[in-house]
Amino acid sequence: MSKARRATMSDVAREVGVTAKTVSRVVNGEGPVSAETRARVLEAMDRLGFQPNLMARNMRVGARDSTVGLVIPDMGNPFFGTVAGGIEGAVRPRGLTLLVGSSEETAEGERSLISTFLARRVTALLVVPSADSDHHPLRAERAAGLPIVFLDRPPNRLTADCVVSANREGARSGVAHLIAHGHRRIAFVGDLSTLYTRRERFQGYRDALAKAGIPLDRALVETGHDHEAAAAAVVRLLARKDPATAVFAANNFAATGVVLGLARLRRRDVALVGFDDLPLAEVLEPALTVVAQDSAAIGKAAAELLMARLDGDRSRARTVEVPTRLIVRGSGEMPPTV
């Protein structure tokens, strides 16, 4: 069987030495099949990478849909909600329906969702990768012509279309903004170091420090994967003998947590720049200065890539970088008080 096409039910039947009807019974759970035969069929399906064509089955009973599958890490993160909105606005005029599922930031969850979408024979696949995922198994799907686009983070062990923010340059500009207002002890509060976005933004932080001749102090680097972790991190940073006078929060959850931690400490003298805008950022006191991503543009760019592939574009995989912008509101402009 050619690796450039999807395995079929006939391929599985031939591999096991049974009829296609027997394979169909295993796939659909209909009709008698011995436990031994079922096990052999399932093993062959896994080995050949066979995905049941649920869309064809739906069409046989009168249902018709043309879908795009989107895997995101977290349904509760407003960033990904806006990304999904950008995608949906672009694909809907083409008669495509967007299906969204959460991997919960795990490789296992991501694999399961991708398998589900492939089983439906989705028209295209969009993925925000988890930190430890492996996308090498998707090479056959991509070679067979399935449009696959990765968002926010590049794929692992696969060359494919990708849309990301200008993470490094955005972080550099945010930290440089704090330096321009007199800060030299600038803390970094970010996500897990295994994430591409965290690594890129941390490098931007380091770039800004290096350009200003400020040595990196590892004691000022903290992890805040969620609100409470980030709040606890800023408490630790400000309890030091030589505390930070400013904080760069490298994602929206980290920024929310830092705001929460500063409020608990009743500290309004610490400058803060966040990466990602926040709801109600303008009504905080002081209002939050941010490096804003254009999440809707990220979604739209990903949708345009996949639609170009659907229209026959067979050029080499490419990466689109969407610019960020610094929004000055007040929290990042406070000078150091110590």
From TrEMBL:
This protein's record includes keyword DNA-binding: yes
Bilayer-spanning residue ranges: none
InterPro entries per the UniProt record, alphabetical: HTH_LacI, LacI/GalR-like_sensor, Lambda_DNA-bd_dom_sf, Peripla_BP_I
GO molecular-function terms, A-Z: DNA binding
Species of provenance: Streptosporangium longisporum
Domain HTH lacI-type: start-end pairs: 7-61
Key word Glycoprotein present: no
UniProt cross-references to PANTHER family, sorted A to Z: HTH-TYPE TRANSCRIPTIONAL REGULATOR GALS, LACI-RELATED TRANSCRIPTIONAL REPRESSOR
CDD domains hit by this protein: HTH_LacI, PBP1_LacI_sugar_binding-like
Keywords of this entry: DNA-binding, Transcription, Transcription regulation
Signal peptide residue numbers: none
Protein name: LacI family DNA-binding transcriptional regulator
